Amino acid sequence: MGIELVEGRDLLVHNNIVYMRTTAGLKRIDVIYRRIDDDYLDPLAFEPDSTLGVPGLLNAYRAGNVALANAIGTGVADDKAIYAYVPAIIRYYLGEEPILPNVETYLLSDEIQQKYVLEHLDELVVKAVGESGGYGMLIGPYSTAAQRDAFRRQVIINPRNYIAQPTLAFSRAPCIIDNQIEPRHVDLRPFVLFGEHVTIVPGGLTRVALKRGSLVVNSSQGGGSKDTWVLVGPAAQANE
Questions:
Q1: Fold entry, domain 8-75
Q2: Which site in 28, 111, 137, 152 is 20 to 30 Å from 195, CA atoms measured?
Q3: pLDDT exceeds 60 at position 237
């Protein structure tokens, strides 16, 4: 993808400018896509004991010398209940209808929606709004009656903590498992840069559920990944 993968210790800030350490010397960095929480981003501004972040990064950001693709505070969108409001957000802020349909999302804090979900737990996926990595989730069609009963009790106790969605039909791709080719479910996460021009990055993240029949592709749950290329066809090139 042409993007450097670094840890906090690979970066440094000098005169409010971020640099990457390389074998050829320092190289200036203009954009960072971060994968650590706000609290650990800069020990001078947030958690002082953090060894994951970059000292002085926040000052460089304030000075406009580096862009954070996922800016400080955007973690509010990690609340999965936001899914349900995406179409309304598009209409409110952009004044237009969504181009891509949203996955139907049920808010379990709504009594009517909660009643429907609890009656159809064997058909739906229920997710804790603050969890990630495949944790705090019930996949109805692949669950046991005991698991559904446990989730039903949790929803009733704390409905705001959960959403539900239809069980999606994932695509499958061939994988080599124990020296044999077997199908496994996959999902694709493309990366698109949106500015004056829209650019599709020539790569992506294809996650694989390596457990037979599983729909959970998260690496923390035994998932894997596949190399991914984005090929631009003649029509797309012509449009550019």
A1: Rossmann fold (3.40.50)
A2: 28
A3: no
